[in-house]
Specification:
The complex is a heterodimer. Helix content of chain A is 61%, strand content 9%. A two-stranded antiparallel ribbon of chain A has the order 1-2. In chain B, strand 3 and strand 4 form a beta hairpin. The mean pLDDT of chain B is 85. Classes of the chains: A mainly alpha, B alpha+beta. Chain A: InterPro entries: BlaI_family (IPR005650), WH-like_DNA-bd_sf (IPR036388), WH_DNA-bd_sf (IPR036390). Chain A: Belongs to the BlaI transcriptional regulatory family. Chain A: Keywords: DNA-binding, Transcription, Transcription regulation.
């Protein structure tokens, strides 16, 4: 088995594959290839290479069924989202998540409903912390 | 003369000969552009590499020439010596300097070499210390870069291998590049590029062409000798010229291959540049591809160099320029032979004169007479 390479983050193309894998739960290279939009025109070998890299990086588990490898995610989408946000907050917002949220609110023109949802989330968090 | 002096003399001669090679190259380029002659880039690259080999082999040529001269196999008039020529010009009144000053000017190089080699207190020690420190710094930097390259290769994902060629995928590099190990050639491609199979094909053709042209070996050689030539602008000019022309030569060779569409190739370069710049910005200028590698394109700004955008523009312009000459190798030999002759003769002319010639004896006599006259003048002065 290839040596695991430590890299906590996904490249754009790897994220595309992981997103499909999170959607279907588990699958072979062929299954993932079928999930991609037809205009992608990615060769089977390229898809297989990307999956092998994801395996090496520890993002997926693989098991052999007959002659094909079946891949399944080793971490959930939520976990990766948190990891990416933490990284973004550390690298780009000097570890001040508040400024990251402020930028998000400014840039995305959040609706009243969105803001209400965020407020409810923060309230819930505050109640949890108080307990 | 000690062995250290001899080695130092050869080193200084190499630096001067390299400077001469740069002058010859610039003159040839200027004449070519005035006459409207444009050599194909692969031909220019071969010429550059051949001249560099000639420069590095010139000390051996000088040794062979000296041997043949001592055996009487070379006519005496061919053994030109710059210092002897200067003395004869002085005696003919071509140089207006007091004899003693002229003598010390002639002996300046020998004096400086001696001071540096023996680390004589003062200027000799200063230069020797600064030189040793700079060479050590250069060697240290080279090792650091090679270690970084090694780490980068180790961290990259194995993709494919064909014999001595290993293809790798990396999450961190900004542009595809090739590098040479002791036994293997490596081509590293950003993982993102897998999403564009057409670009991957073009990029691999480009990198394979670099390997075919032997660019990885030349780059390695130039990087290894760089710490020794750190103070010589001629070396940096030469290296920059090689770096520029090898990319243009590679582009030209790839674009001429069957099945390669020129427009698609240019668009591929543009996309690679776009991706590289984006990656550079994401990493805030970090993770530059280590030295001793040959990259598809440079996306980092470098001191005294054209900006990456200008370089890319020149490459696309060069690709669209189809009128270039590819002379037969025998015509090229006709160009290289005189250059080789000039480099060899320059090497011979820079050597120290073998013995006391008539002119030198005359110069020495003039100096002694001038000294006697000074002493006599002083003796006649009333108390």
């Amino acid at each position: 088995m290839a040596k695991r390479k430590s890299n906590e983050f996904l490249t754009e193309v790897e994220l595309e594959f992981m997103s499909e894998l999170w959607k279907i739960g588990e699958g072979s290279v062929r299954d993932l290839q079928a999930c991609l939009p037809p205009q992608r025109k990615l060769a089977y070998t390229s898809c297989a290479t990307i999956m092998r890299i994801l395996d090496e990086k520890g993002f997926v588990d693989s098991r052999k069924e007959g002659k094909t490898f079946i891949y399944s995610p080793r971490l959930t989408k939520d976990t990766y989202q948190s990891r990416s946000l933490r990284n973004l907050s550390e690298k780009l917002f000097d570890s001040t998540p508040a400024s990251m949220v402020a930028r998000l609110v400014d840039e995305y023109e959040l609706s009243e409903n969105d803001l209400e949802e965020i407020r409810a989330l923060l309230d819930r968090r505050r109640t949890d912390d108080a307990d | 003369m000690t062995l250290t002096n001899q080695i130092f003399d050869i080193y200084i001669d190499l630096n001067i000969t390299l400077g001469l090679a740069v002058v010859l190259w610039v003159i040839a380029k200027h004449i070519g552009s005035r006459l409207g002659l444009k050599l194909a880039f692969p031909v220019q690259l071969s010429l550059l590499n051949t001249v560099l080999v000639l420069v590095f082999l010139s000390p051996l040529g000088v040794l062979a020439f000296a041997h043949l001269h001592s055996e009487g196999a070379v006519p005496a008039y061919m053994a030109v010596n710059l210092s002897d020529y200067a003395v004869s010009q002085y005696l003919r009144g071509g140089i207006a300097l007091p004899a003693e000053e002229f003598q010390s000017l002639l002996g300046f190089r020998a004096w400086l070499t001696e001071s540096i080699v023996t680390a004589a207190p003062g200027i000799g020690l200063g230069i020797a210390a600064a030189f040793a420190a700079s060479v050590a710094f250069g060697i240290g930097k080279l090792f650091l870069s090679l270690t970084r390259l090694r780490r980068l290769l180790a961290e990259s994902h194995h993709w494919r291998s064909h014999g001595r060629l290993v293809l790798k995928l990396s999450d961190t590099v900004a542009t595809p590049f090739s590098a040479r190990g002791i036994f293997k050639n490596y081509v590293v491609v950003p993982t993102e590029m897998l999403a564009s199979p057409e670009d991957v094909k073009m990029v691999l053709k480009h990198e394979y062409q670099h390997i075919r042209q032997g660019d990885l070996v030349w780059e390695m050689v130039l990087e290894i000798v760089r710490p020794l030539f750190f103070w010589n602008p001629a070396f940096f000019y030469w290296k920059q010229e090689v770096e520029t022309i090898r990319e243009l030569a590679c582009d030209q060779a790839v674009a001429e291959r069957r099945g390669v569409d020129l427009k698609s190739y240019c668009m591929c370069l543009l996309r690679a540049a776009e991706f590289g710049v984006r990656r550079r910005q994401e990493q805030l200028g970090g993770k530059r591809v280590a030295i001793a590698t040959v990259a598809l394109l440079d996306v980092h700004k470098r001191l005294f160099r054209k900006s990456p955008a200008n370089k890319l523009r020149s490459r696309v312009e060069a690709l669209l320029e189809t009128r270039s000459l590819r002379p037969h190798w025998s015509v090229l030999a006709l160009v290289v032979l005189p250059v080789a002759g000039v480099i060899l003769m320059a090497g011979v002319a820079l050597q120290k004169p073998a013995d006391w010639s008539q002119d030198r004896l005359m110069l020495s006599a003039i100096i002694n007479l001038e000294r006697l006259e000074t002493i006599n003048t002083l003796a006649q002065r009333p108390d």
